[in-house]
Amino acid sequence: MTPPSTPTSGVPANAGADRRRAPQDIRRWRRYLADERAEAATYRDLASRRSGEEKEILLALADAEKRHEDHWLALLGDDVGKPLRGDWRTRSLGLFARRFGGVFVLALAQRAEARSTYETDADATATMAADERIHEEVVRGLATRGRMRMSGTFRAAVFGANDGLVSNLALILGIGASGASNATVLLSGLAGLLAGALSMGAGEYVSVRSQRELLDASTPSPLASAALPHLDVDANELALVYRARGLAPDEAEKHAGEVLSTYTAATVIAPAVEGDEFETHGSAMGAAVSSFLFFASGALIPVLPYLFGLQGGVAILVGSALVGIALLGTGATVGLLSGASPIKRALRQLAIGFGAAAATYALGLIFGATVA
Fold first, then answer.
1. Most exposed of 76, 86, 143, 172 (fewest Cβ within 10 Å)?
2. pLDDT for 93-124, tens place per residue?
3. Which contacts (CB < 8 Å, 24+ apart) does range 20-27 have?
C-alpha cells in the first residue's frame, strides 16, 4: 500500500486573495507547515532504519507530507517567515525516530496521523484530509507487523509486571491492615514476590509451549507429501485431505487434481504454518523469562518501603504511590503501542489495580478487627 499521488498543492477558493489573511490564519498555516516538515523528517528517519518494501512505503509517506508542505507554502507566500517549531508531540515523534525507530515510534506516528484536523479546516483540501486518513492506515499496517513480532513476549512482560504490582500490593495491604508486624509484612511480600514470579514464569512457559505444540500438530507431515506420486489418481483420496481442512467437496476434488497434475519434488499437501504465526506467540522460554523478571520487578515495588525501614501507614502510602506510578507507566505503554490514548489506558490500569488492592485492604481490616 502506498499513499495516493494526487497533487494537493491547490489553494482553496476561500483562502488567500478571496479573504483577508488574518494573523491567526498565518500562524495556523505556519504551524501546519512545521508539523508537515517534522512528520516528513520522521518518516525519512524511520526509512533509514528499514530496507525493502517497508523503506519504500516510509519514503512514499515522506513524499506525501512534502506535497502537504507545498500546499501551506503556497498559501503563506511571502508570509512564510522564520520556521516555527512543530507541535510538541510531532517533535517528540521525530526525536524517538532518530534515537530508537521500531514499533513504538510507528505506534506514535499512527496516533499523530489520527489527530489530523484537515477535515474541519477550511484551508486544507479534501484530498489532504483523505491523505491523512490513508496515511494512518498505512502506518497502522507497518506497526501491526512489529506488534505481531513482539506480541508474545510483550504480553507476558506487561501481564507479569501488572500482576506483580497489583497482587503484591494487595497482599501487603491486606496483611498490614490486619495488624501484623513489619517483619511479617516484609516476609510475606518477599514470599509473594518469589512464589508469584516462579508461578508466572512456569505458567507462561507451559502456555506458550502448548500453543506452539498445537500449531506444530496442525502442520502437514512431510511423509504425506512424499506419498503424493504413488496415490491412485482415480480414487484421489487426496481430496479427503482438503475436505478435512474445510474445502467443499467439489473444490477439494478440483484442488487435489491440480496438485497431482503439477506434482514436483517440492510439492507439499498443504502449506506449513508461517513463521510469523509462531512469532505472534513468541518463544516459550522468552515468554517465561520475561514474565518472571517483570513480575518480580513489579512485585518488588510495594516491598521497597519496608526494605528501607519505613513502617506502618507511611510504608503503605509510599508503596501505594510507587505502585500507582508504575501502573500509570504500564498502562500508558500499552496505550501507545496499541495506538490508543495513553492517558485513558493509564487511568484504567490505575483504577483496576487500586480497586483490587483496596478490596484486599478492606478484607485485612475486617480480619484484623475480627481477630482482635
1. 76
2. 555 545 545 666 777 677 777 777 888 888 88
3. 21/79, 25/123, 26/76, 26/79, 27/84
